[in-house]
Every structure is written in C-alpha cells, then in structure tokens.
Design brief:
Layout lengths: L2 H18 L3 E3 L4 H29 L1 H6 L4 H19 L4 E3 L2 H21 L8
Antiparallel strand pairs: 1-2
Helix pairs in contact: 1-2, 1-5, 2-4, 4-5
Length: 127
C-alpha cells in the first residue's frame, strides 16, 4: 500500500477511535481543522511506531517473552501517549486523557486499521 493510503487509513482509525474511546478526542474548530489534525497525528503516530517500536522490541524482548506478548499492549499505549505529547507540543487539538484511554485507543486504532487494510486492496499483492 502506498504511504498516503496508509496515512489515510490511520487517520480514519484515529477518527473512529475518538468516537469510541471516551478519553481520546480531537477538538478542531471545524471539519477541515479536525481532518488535518487527524492526518498530522496519524503521521506522528506512524513515525513514532516506525522509529521507537523496533528499538523497544529489541530492548524489551525479555518482557515480551515473559508476558507472552502482552507487554506489547503496554508499549502501544505508551507510544500512543507519546504521540499525544508530541501533538500537544505542536499545539494540535488532539488529547488523550491518560494511560487507560491510550491503552484502549491504541487497541482500537490497531484493530480498525487492520480491518480497513483488509478491505482496501494492496496493489503490490496483485503484481
């Protein structure tokens, strides 16, 4: 899938997350501001996951093994909170209220992104 398609999928997943998870919200002035905020936050979330997640997996591989992978849920929540912190520093109207909101928000984003990725065809698969 192309970069822009993945970015749009993550932005849509974030939007759905704001509707499902009570502690995750976007407070844009209008629909354009909200859409741009979701796209920028999706970009931040993608970069944070691409850069930090592999490092954390290597450094924390013992915790992943000891918890049979459940540690990944905590890592995803912390990366979601880190995305919130970066968004706040950039004065974006994206807010996550705490760890549990980040925990459920990261799960919803992952599941919704996965479902949308199944529906959207991947051009590389058919070459």
């Amino acid at each position: 899938m192309g970069f822009l398609v993945r970015l749009a999928i993550t932005a849509i997943a974030l939007w759905i997350t704001t509707m499902i998870v009570p502690g995750v919200k976007v407070t844009g002035r209008d629909i354009t501001d909200t859409a741009l905020t979701l796209l920028v936050v999706a970009l931040i979330f993608g970069v944070v996951n691409a850069v930090l997640k592999p490092v954390i997996k290597v450094l924390g591989c013992v915790f992943y093994l000891l918890t049979l992978g459940l540690f990944a849920l905590v890592v995803n929540a912390l990366l979601f909170l880190f995305t919130n912190w970066i968004a706040r520093e950039l004065h974006l109207p994206f807010h996550v209220d705490g760890f549990w909101s980040a925990f459920w928000g990261a799960i919803v984003v992952a599941v919704v992104s996965w479902v949308i990725s199944i529906v959207v065809p991947d051009r590389r698969r058919y070459r």
